[in-house]
Each structure stands twice: as structure tokens, then as C-alpha cells.
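In this section we walk through a basic example: taking a raw amino acid sequence and producing a predicted 3D structure, encoded as C-alpha cells. The instruction is simple. Fold the sequence below.
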Amino acid sequence: MQHIALALKDIYFQGKSGRLVIKRKETEKYIFFIEGKPFQVKTNVKSERLGEILFKLQKIQQDTFSKIDDYIEANQPLGESLKKSGVIKETDLREALTFQIRDALLNVFNYFDAELSFQERSDPKPPAEFPVVDLPFIIDYGIRRMKYDV
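The resulting C-alpha cell sequence is shown next.
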């Protein structure tokens, strides 16, 4: 068993590039890293999806959120489609991506039975600008907010 805190510490301090795969029951998450920095999340957890987060952060309106599937394009991330359509600005997307990465990671800290694997890649395409995610802070905060059974 490897805990998420140990996996993140290893990725961060060794400056790894690739994807961290997290599986537990029906939950699947893929966190993508370049040189130890997270920059993208793919998840099947509804509350962690980009459309949900943009709505929660009030970056998109209810009518846009209810028609979010209309903005999905093949081979293009939802955020880029929304930005290209003029629905959100670059700063909105960056803020939502930062929130998404942080939440997707923090929500795993109470899992001690999750399957974790890191698939290294040397060729990931870096984003124009990385979301601001402080991994040492995430590790510290994630551990502090864990629930312990006494």
C-alpha cells in the first residue's frame, strides 16, 4: 500500500513527468505532471469535473452549465472549447484548473485502499502556463485534514 502523500512527495522531489493513476472502487483519477508539477486532471468524480467547478466558482451561468455537453469537442479539452467560444477567459480557466487539481488530490488523502501507479513519460506537452499548485502545501494540508479513528 502506498499513500497519496508518499506518491506526491516522490513525484515532486524527483521532478517526474507522466501520469499518476488513482483507482478506488468506482473512482478513477488521472493526474498529469511535468517535472513534478501537476497540470491536468481527468476524473470520473462528478464534483471534480471542470464544468462543475466552473459553475461552483461562478465562472459560468446556469444556462451554460446545463448545456455544457454542447461545448465538448473531439480532441480538445472542455476548458479550451469554452475559452475559444468566449464563454470564459484564460484567467477563469487557470483558476478552475488550479481548483480542480487541488480538490482531486485532497479528496484522495483519506484513501488507504486506493491503487496508485505512476506511469512515467518523457514526452508530455507542457501547457503554456502551469496552474499554480503548491504540492508541498497540498501534502501538508491533506495530512492535516485527514480523519483519524481513535
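Looking at the output, two observations stand out. The first helix runs from residue 4 to 13. The chain is about 35% helix and 20% strand. In the next section we compare this with other chains.
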